[in-house]
Specification:
12 strands, single chain, 414 residues
Length: 414
């Protein structure tokens, strides 16, 4: 019967091609959309952990309360010592101190606002981490009065590598302080949130400039196992309370789930994935239902003949369902083949999503280039889902087979 069902797919080539094309389009769009969106979400999570919060972010509760006015006086004292202790905890993969603030640069007799990232350059994700490269110059020396900058900074300020720049910052006592630094390198980050005018300065020198005394605004902790994040929130609170004597509530110790907007919207993304799948599977199933019903109505004589030869109505229904499944299988296979080709080139050369304004949205962790991918196994799972939808749609469409009167069908056709 499978051979007969396969042969029947050639009886009406136009209808077969139309149905297979609908299944192909629906499956291909689902594959591309799911591959693109899931890669984008994974990329956003990576960038969020690397550049925005770590798995756990530590800062003074007072700073969190008045963050909008950048209260530098609420910095973390002894940040270097605390970071060292946390880095020694079993299960912690990386700890870094970060002060992400705004300051001014004195250029051509005027002050221009810029973003300043104070980091430990030899180990920071911002200078030597994943997705970061030094496109010009070299890595700065923490002991020297040197800075690195973004390419946008050089363009906006009309400066170049080797030039000196005067940085003016607020201090912890409410005053201002300035110092000159030599530009020794240009940082190129794949994270689209860091394409504006940015100055990367050693934590040691920014502490002197802002009078923080070995302090930092934040300490970010990355874990070997992200699933243990809530456990480590409690562990870090215990270290700060028992090891350093800080009262509960002095620090804000938050997982990236609570400190960023990316995690909060992941459930929305998952709902969007489901809606896209249902929408295109529904469109394909509608066409399968219509074409199968037309096929049943046009082949009433054939159905009646098979009935007189001893075929049950259920077996005849399965014949049509097998035929529809063969057509859907052809469309799914074609979608998988084209999907493999698409993901091969997209994953190799990438897609510049700054064309869609990704670099204008801060705090979401979008990368400048996205390299979407999807494994063959995942593609097959979506194809199987489409085949199941096609089978169920044809099952619904062939319900009229049992209503066909054999004698009437034979008389009408003759």
């Amino acid at each position: 019967m499978l051979g007969l069902a396969f042969k029947n797919t050639t009886r009406n080539p136009r209808r077969t091609i139309l149905t297979a094309f609908a299944v192909f389009i629906a499956t291909f769009i689902v594959l591309i959309a799911m591959g693109f969106m899931k890669t984008m979400v994974a990329d956003m999570v990576d960038n969020t952990v690397l550049h925005l919060s770590g798995h756990i972010r530590i800062r003074r509760q007072d700073y969190a309360t008045y963050e909008d006015v950048m209260p530098l006086q609420f910095y973390i004292e002894d940040s270097n010592d605390i970071a060292g202790v946390l880095n020694g905890l079993d299960g912690v993969s990386h700890v870094e101190r970060v002060s992400n603030v705004f300051a001014s640069v004195y250029v051509d007799g005027a002050l221009k606002n810029v973003q300043v990232l104070a980091v430990d350059p030899e180990t920071s994700n911002f200078t030597v981490g994943k997705g970061v490269s030094i496109s010009q110059g070299r890595l700065l020396d923490s002991s020297a009065r040197e800075v690195m900058v973004s390419q946008r900074f050089l363009m906006d300020m009309g400066l170049d590598v080797g030039d000196s720049v005067t940085l003016v910052s607020r201090t912890t006592n409410g005053g201002t302080n300035g110092a000159s630094f030599k530009i020794v390198g240009v940082v190129d980050s794949m994270d689209a949130s860091y394409t504006s005018a940015i100055v990367y300065i050693p934590m040691e020198w920014f502490s002197k400039l802002s009078h923080m005394e070995d302090g930092a605004i934040e300490i970010r902790v990355e874990l070997d196992d992200e699933e243990r994040v809530l456990e480590f929130v409690d562990i870090i609170n215990d270290v700060l309370s028992n090891g350093y004597g800080y009262e509960k509530g002095y620090f804000e110790v938050e997982s990236w789930h609570d400190s960023t907007i990316v995690y909060k919207f992941m459930k929305i993304y998952e709902a969007m994935f489901l809606v896209i799948e249902i929408l295109f599977f529904f469109i394909a199933s509608t066409l399968i239902v219509n074409t199968t019903m037309m096929s049943v109505m046009e082949r009433r004589k054939e159905i009646s003949t098979l009935s007189t030869l001893g075929f049950t109505r259920t077996r005849i229904r399965f014949l049509f369902m097998e035929e529809s499944t063969f057509i859907a299988l052809f469309g799914c296979v074609l979608a998988i083949v084209l999907g493999l080709v698409t993901f091969h080139f997209a994953g190799r050369y990438g897609i510049d999503i700054t064309m869609f304004g990704a670099d204008q949205v801060e705090g979401w962790g979008f990368s400048k280039y996205l390299y979407p991918t999807m494994g063959f196994g995942s593609m097959c799972m979506y194809a199987l889902a489409m085949l199941a939808v096609a089978f169920l749609a044809s099952c619904f469409a062939t319900r009229h087979v049992k209503d066909i009167e054999i004698a009437d069908a034979l008389r009408e056709e003759n």
